[in-house]
Amino acid sequence: MKNIIIKNEKNYQIVSGNAISILNSLPASIYELCFNKDMGFSINEVDNHFNITEKLYGEIEDNTKRVLNTFEAIEKNLGVLFSGPKGLGKSLNLRKICVEAIKRGYPVILVKEQFDSISLFIETICQPVVIVFDEFEKLYLDRNKTEKDELQGQDSLLNLFDAALSGKKLFLLTCNDVRNISEFLLNRPGRLHYHFRMNRLSIDEITEYCKDNLKEENINLISEICSLGALISDFSYDMLRSIIFELNTYQCDLQEARKVLNIEARSKSPFNYTVYYTSGETETGFDYIDTASRLYRLDWFREKDGYRNDVRINMTKLQWTGNSDGSLLLDGKYICLLRGEDNSKIEKIIFVPANEGYLAACND
Fold first, then answer.
1. pLDDT tens per residue, range 148-205
2. Buried b vs exposed e over 51-88: b needs ≥16 C-beta within 10 Å?
């Protein structure tokens, strides 16, 4: 068979005729974006099919359905950002969306390098596709974080993400720290419609994972593991898997495992908290819970009259329970008012990990 010569502007490519297939659209598979200075951009099919064999916890299934259903319901681009520390399921949720997108007939293109003029190439793709930027802030720097020309950073992609532009593409981005994301992408649902924040494992996720993976004789340690998770602002699956491995393998208690593992519950963890009275009134405050204390004191001031309230929390008897959003509930029976008032006045205190306070503490 004769060779076929493909001419693209001033570039000529000679290929064997039996290697050529003319397609009307890109098949639903996984591709990697490539660039050659002589041939320009191209995409190569890769063998990685994002097989997911592990059980999915938390809101991954719900997030996946919402993203793909929204993408199919609109006739424009859709941007999605997953943010949070490593080990909390950002990339797993991204992979799950890609797997389901392929089932629905959408090709997936992985961008693993920083390319100039990538927007021009992506805009030439006429069919609905999924474009993935894993660890986006490392591929494309925010102009405030670098001295490089802003056209090579995140600003070069702003128009690409605009939902109003022609085309229909699903952009999936992950980042470890939203402080490295351009201000022109955050709070801009026209560019990034969804922002899924993964800051910590919830008590429900920790409990369910422990029930699935702890040996039967260690099930009674779940409440202790939840308490530890509640006191680490970025508690992740990596930490949880390591803890469970130690407990199952060496038949030790949680205290012994913590001594040897690279996991540290800081001596003070920041929380916003709300005090709920049996009367229906509430008060709010902020404090750094001292995890090393046997009895810990909370102080706050009532907004209506400035009256100071203070209570003691029995840290040795803490049994944290919580919701899927990561909030932690402490029953009133572990709380002691210090001013001689009736302890039964307080029904509960709900703590919410204060991520900004945690980050500020780390930078001090």
1. 554 568 888 888 888 666 679 999 999 998 889 999 999 999 999 999 998 778 878 8
2. eeeeeebbbbeebbeebbeebeeeeebbbbbbbbbebb
Q: At what angle do helices 237-250 and 222-230 cross, to 10 degrees?
A: 150
**Alpha carbon distance 150, 127 (integer Å):** 29
Q: Letter for the amino acid at 290?
A: D
* Ranges assigned E (strand) in the chain: 3-8, 11-16, 30-36, 40-45, 78-83, 108-110, 129-133, 169-175, 194-197, 268-277, 282-290, 295-301, 308-314, 321-322, 328-331, 335-337, 346-353
Cα gap 66→69, rounded to integer Å: 5
Q: Where are the domains of the chain?
A: 22-197, 203-260, 268-363
Report helix angle 203-213 to 222-230, nearest 10: 140
Per-residue CA distances from 306 to 242, 277, 313, 350, 351 (Å) = 46, 17, 22, 21, 22
Closest residue by Cα to residue 235 from 269, 259, 260, 211: 269
How would DSSP label each residue in 239-291? HHHHHHHHHHHH---HHHHHHHSS----SEEEEEEEEEETTS-EEEEEEEEET
The residues with which 348 forms a beta bridge, in sequence order, are 276, 331
What are the structure tokens assigned to 288, written together?
A: 């750094």
Structure token pair of residue 155: 């600003």
Give me the count of residues in the chain: 364
Tell me: the pLDDT tens digits for 291-336? Answer: 667 788 888 887 777 777 888 887 777 666 666 566 778 888 888 8
Cβ atoms of 328 and 203 closer than 8 Å: yes
Q: Give Cα separations from 150 to 13, 142, 172, 191 (angstroms).
A: 33, 8, 22, 18
Residue 273 β-bridge partners: 285, 351
- Return the CATH superfamily for domain 22-197: P-loop containing nucleotide triphosphate hydrolases (3.40.50.300)
At 328, give phi and psi (nearest 5°).
-125, 130
Going by C-beta distance under 8 Å and a sequence separation of 6 or more, which residues neighbour residue 152? Answer: 114, 116, 140
